[in-house]
Structure formats: structure tokens, C-alpha cells
Specification:
- InterPro entries: 4Fe4S_Fe-S-bd (IPR017896), 4Fe4S_Fe_S_CS (IPR017900), AKR (IPR020471), AKR2_Oxidoreductase (IPR053135), NAD(P)_OxRdtase_dom_sf (IPR036812), NADP_OxRdtase_dom (IPR023210).
- Residues 296-326 form the 4Fe-4S ferredoxin-type domain.
- With 337 residues, the protein is α/β, with parallel strands linked by helices.
- The chain folds into 2 domains: 3-245, NADP-dependent oxidoreductase domain (TIM Barrel, Alpha-Beta Barrel), CATH 3.20.20.100; 273-336, no CATH class.
- It contains 14 helices and 10 strands.
- The protein has helices at 28-40, 55-63, 81-94, 120-129, 143-152, 168-179, 198-205, 222-233, 240-252, 273-276, 279-285, 294-301, 311-315, 322-336, and strands spanning 3-5, 12-14, 17-19, 45-47, 71-76, 100-106, 133-139, 157-161, 183-187, 213-218.
- The chain has an 8-stranded parallel beta barrel, surrounded by 5 helices.
- Strand 1 and strand 2 (12-14) form a beta hairpin.
- The chain is globular.
- The model has no long low-confidence stretch (mean pLDDT 94).
- It binds iron/sulfur cluster (SF4) (2 copies).
Length: 337
């Protein structure tokens, strides 16, 4: 199985990491089965977060007996020292472990630093000294914060959205991490469901220039796991056919499209922005029937109630004009109907 060295952490993880956000949506028994199957077939890296409801608990149930053979990363959204310790203790308890390999600040709007007044970075250092965490990482969706984290020299890993739709600046981040000897963990390798060809997604990540990139695939179903496991045995090559498919997706999905991350929510008008703002793409790239149901028609209709408060726009890490995007998607949706 292909391995990736996560920079100065010296951790060696499987090229296919397991993103444990989607296991929130399945039962504990199903999750334990899926996680253990992944492990027995060579996946040794599992990424979760305190914010993913019972995901940590499911990981704990699956792996407490074999902890030392795994690399586990989790995340905290704490904004102060008190919440940092509360989250860390809770994560250790749920994961049934006494240490976390990589403890990450979960998409903070700023890059935590010593003496920034929050006490967050100092707390992480103390947790490292105590052996509760082994490495300090950061996840983000904002280029500016990611750039600052790399330049600061304070972090051992960066987790950032990265797929074959990556812009030049995102690719540069992966290179900068390599130069800084930081681990680069790629989230959203299927761009939040917009990329359907996982073989193309894998083949892109497996190119030699991305040897330092460790993708974590969000896995919920056994067939999804089987797909990624099969790529270990028989790695897909970037054939002319796959390259053409990637080029077509890049053309269709370039520019201002909503990645479905949900960082702009909640919306005071109750609009489910993370799906409504990319409805046009979903209608064209996924089976349409579900999106045209009466339930979804009602959700799309809520766009009429947008108060143009612009709260979403301020929070979108991709700088999208969200209210405008919602209006465009709604117009298109009505035409579709
Ligand atoms: S601008 Fe509209 S969509 Fe955005 S948060 Fe405000 S009400 Fe919701
Ligand atoms: S509008 Fe921006 S923040 Fe909101 S879901 Fe889409 S990409 Fe994410």
C-alpha cells in the first residue's frame, strides 16, 4: 500500500485516509464494521472532529484494542483555552485513547499563535508536553489563514480542500507544505460530491508531484470503501480518457461555484445554502428526481425570503456572492421544474 510521510511529524499514513465525517449518518454497528474493514485492508489513517457528533465515539468503539497501529487526527473549534481543554478531554474519552496523533484547530477564522490573547496555541503546546497530543495541526478553507499557518512555522500539518479542481493557489499550498516539511492532508477530494469519478480523483492525487499529499476520503458506504481499497491493489492511471474527464469537469466547475461546505450557515431565513446555492450543478451532475421533490421545492422557495443581510457572504471562505448565487440557482431551478 502506498504511504505518505506527513512531513516533520514523521508519521507514515496510507495514501487513502479515512474521513470519518459521514459515519455520523450510519449506525454504530455499521460504522465499526466499515472502520475495521478499512483497517484490515491497510488504511491506517482516520480523521475525525469533535464537531462530527458521534464519529469519535464510533472510532473509539472500533479501535480501542489496536490504537498504537493507527494514526488518528481530530479537531477542536474552541475559541478559548477553557473550551480547548473541554474538547480535548471529551475527544480522548470518546476515542477511548490517552493520546491523539494530530490535534487540529478546526477551520479557525484566524491562525492561532502564541500570545494572540486566546491562549489556544499555548494550550496545544501544554497538551503536547503532557503527551495528550503528539502533533499540532490546523485545518482551513481560507487561503490567507493557510498561508499564514505555513509561514508561521508553528504547525506540523495543514488540512485543506484539494482535488483535481484545485486552483493554482491550492496546488502552491501543497508545494509550500512540502518545502516547509509540513504534512498536507487533502480534504474534499471529491469536492463535496461534485466529482463522481473516484478513480480520476485518486489518480490525480497519486501523481509523483503530490507524493506529500495525504487525501482523506469521506466514506459512508461499503462500496465506497471497496472502491478506494481497489485502487491500492490496482492503482488507476491518468489515462487519456481520465484526463479528458478531468478537463471537462474543470471547465464545468471553474470559477464561482459553491463547494457545499456550509461555513456560511446558519441563515436567519432558514435557507439550506450549502445545497441551494449549488442546485444547478446538482441537477446536472446527479440524479434529478430527488432534487425536484416537493420537499426540495419548498426548500428552494425559501430563497424568496432572503433578507440580503449578507451574513453568509461574509463567512464564505471562497469569497462567493452567496445571495446572488442563490437567486441564480433558484431561477434555474424554476426553469427546470
Ligand atoms: S443574505 Fe440571505 S441567504 Fe445569506 S444569510 Fe442573509 S438571509 Fe440568508
Ligand atoms: S456559499 Fe460558500 S460557505 Fe456557503 S456552502 Fe457554498 S462555498 Fe460553502
Amino acid at each position: 500500500m502506498q504511504k505518505v510521510r506527513l512531513g516533520k511529524t514523521e508519521l507514515e499514513v496510507s495514501k487513502n485516509g479515512f474521513g470519518a465525517l459521514p459515519i455520523q449518518r450510519i449506525t454504530k454497528a455499521e460504522a465499526v464494521y466499515l472502520l475495521q474493514k478499512a483497517f484490515y485492508h491497510g488504511i491506517n489513517y482516520f480523521d475525525t472532529a469533535r464537531a462530527y457528533s458521534d464519529s469519535e465515539e464510533k472510532l473509539g468503539a472500533a479501535f480501542s484494542y489496536t490504537r498504537e497501529k493507527l494514526v488518528i487526527s481530530t479537531k477542536t473549534t474552541a475559541q478559548n483555552e477553557k473550551d480547548f481543554w473541554k474538547d480535548l478531554d471529551e475527544s480522548l474519552l470518546k476515542l477511548q485513547t490517552d493520546y491523539i496523533d494530530i490535534y487540529q484547530f478546526h477551520n479557525p477564522a484566524f491562525c492561532p499563535r502564541p500570545e494572540d490573547g486566546t491562549g489556544l496555541y499555548e494550550a496545544a503546546l501544554k497538551a503536547k508536553e503532557q503527551g495528550k497530543i503528539r502533533h499540532i495541526g490546523i485545518t482551513n478553507h481560507r487561503l490567507a489563514v493557510a498561508d499564514e499557518a505555513i509561514a508561521s512555522g508553528l504547525y506540523e500539518t495543514l488540512q485543506f480542500p484539494f482535488s483535481y479542481l484545485a486552483a493554482e493557489a491550492d496546488i502552491k499550498l501543497a508545494e509550500q507544505c512540502k518545502d516547509a516539511d509540513m504534512g498536507f492532508i487533502a480534504m474534499k477530494g471529491l469536492s463535496g460530491g461534485l466529482i463522481h469519478n473516484s478513480a480520476a480523483a485518486y489518480a490525480f492525487m497519486a501523481q509523483p508531484q503530490f507524493s506529500n499529499v495525504a487525501p482523506i476520503w469521506g466514506i459512508q458506504k461499503e462500496n465506497e470503501l471497496d472502491e478506494f481499497l481497489s485502487y491500492e491493489v490496482c492503482p488507476p492511471q491518468l489515462t487519456k480518457e481520465l484526463q479528458e474527464e478531468i478537463a471537462k469537469d474543470r471547465e464545468q466547475l471553474s470559477g464561482d461555484f459553491c463547494r457545499g461546505c456550509g461555513y456560511c450557515m446558519p441563515c436567519p431565513a432558514g435557507i439550506e445554502i450549502n445545497n441551494c446555492a449549488r442546485m444547478s450543478l446538482m441537477l446536472r451532475r446527479a440524479p434529478q428526481t430527488a432534487w425536484l421533490s416537493s420537499e426540495w421545492q419548498a426548500k428552494m422557495q425559501k430563497i424568496d425570503g432572503c433578507m440580503h443581510c449578507n451574513k453568509c457572504m461574509k463567512k464564505c471562505p471562497y469569497g462567493l456572492n452567496t445571495p446572488e448565487l442563490l437567486a441564480k440557482n433558484y431561477e434555474d431551478y424554476k426553469t427546470f421544474l
